[in-house]
Amino acid sequence: MRSHELKKAKRDVRRRVLELRDAMDADDRRREGAAIVARFLDLPEIASSSTVMAFWSFGSEVPTAPLIAALLERGIRVALPAIVDGALHVRTYVSGAPVSVTSFGAMEPADGAVVPATDVDVVCTPAVAFDRSGRRVGYGGGYYDAFFPTTRPDTRRIGLAFDLQVLPEALPAGNADLRVDTIVTGSETIRCERVR
Q1: Taking the model in full, what pTM does it have?
Q2: Which of 32, 57, 69, 84 could cross-link to 64 by cystine, CB 3.0-4.6 Å?
Q3: What's the CA angle centered on 75, arms 144 and 194, to 5 degrees?
Q4: CA–CA dist 175, 189 (Å, integer)
Q5: Are 115 and 50 within 8 A, CB to CB?
Q6: At residue 185, what are phi and psi to the nearest 5 degrees?
Q7: Could you give the C-alpha distances from 76 to 14, 55, 66, 140, in angstroms and in order?
Q8: Closest CA to 132 of 188, 174, 183, 195
Q9: 3-class secondary-structure state, position 148
Q10: What is residue 27's three-state secondary structure?
């Protein structure tokens, strides 16, 4: 697939899935969001992790504030992404620490110690859509695809998604698009074979 065709195919997926996600009933979003958080926290990868990189949800994403709070309660070091000079950096976050609002509406740590990518055991990975083999269509910035190679080979990439965000067909993907290892939804945990 040519570059312009790939971009158009991803835009089409993004538009279609965001319309569905944005239209979710608020009660359904809360209920399924709570189920996703519970399922995520039960993963063996989390039990053995000392540092989890989460993300601060915005808009109609899976609500991550309860997940962040639960990780902190368990004594797990929580790191959050911060975009600095066009690249994703990781900083520690503790409850009540100052945050700043990004241009697209998410929160990121206003300060916090820098966490080396090699310290991260699990990367909670946002996306607009996933397929069942771990491909993802994000928001188009490519930040996570650039970040994944800087982590350890055994760092787990776990996508969080409402059920409607997991599509049965293969998503459009290029050579730079990296997959997640696991997708956690409200109704299932999907294990994927990592290709790269």
Answers
A1: 0.94
A2: 57
A3: 30
A4: 26
A5: no
A6: -120, -175
A7: 33, 15, 14, 30
A8: 183
A9: helix
A10: helix
Among 190, 188, 117, 165, CA closest to 17: 165
Tally of residues, the chain: 196
What local confidence, expressed as pLDDT, does residue 84 receive? 81
pLDDT tens digits along 110-151: 788 899 999 999 999 999 999 999 999 998 888 999 999 999
Residue with tokens 């944005």: 22
Q: Which residues contact residue 78 at a Cβ distance below 8 angstroms, ignoring those fewer than 6 apart?
A: 51, 52, 53, 54, 68, 71, 72, 92, 93, 94
Residues 67 and 94: beta-carbon distance below 8 Å:
no
pLDDT of residue 8 exceeding 90 = yes
Domain assignments of the chain as residue spans, ordered by start? 3-191
Q: Which amino acid is at 175?
A: N
Phi, psi of 92 (to 5 degrees): -70, 155
Identify the DSSP state of 88: E
Listed residue (57, 60, 63) closest to 18, CA to CA: 60
> H helices of the chain, where?
3-22, 26-41, 44-47, 65-73, 143-147
The 10 Å CB-count burial string (b at 16+, else e) for 15-36 is eebbeebeeeeeeebeebbebb
- What's the CATH number for 3-191? 3.40.50.10420
55-86 pLDDT, tens digit per residue, is: 999 889 999 999 999 999 999 999 999 888 88
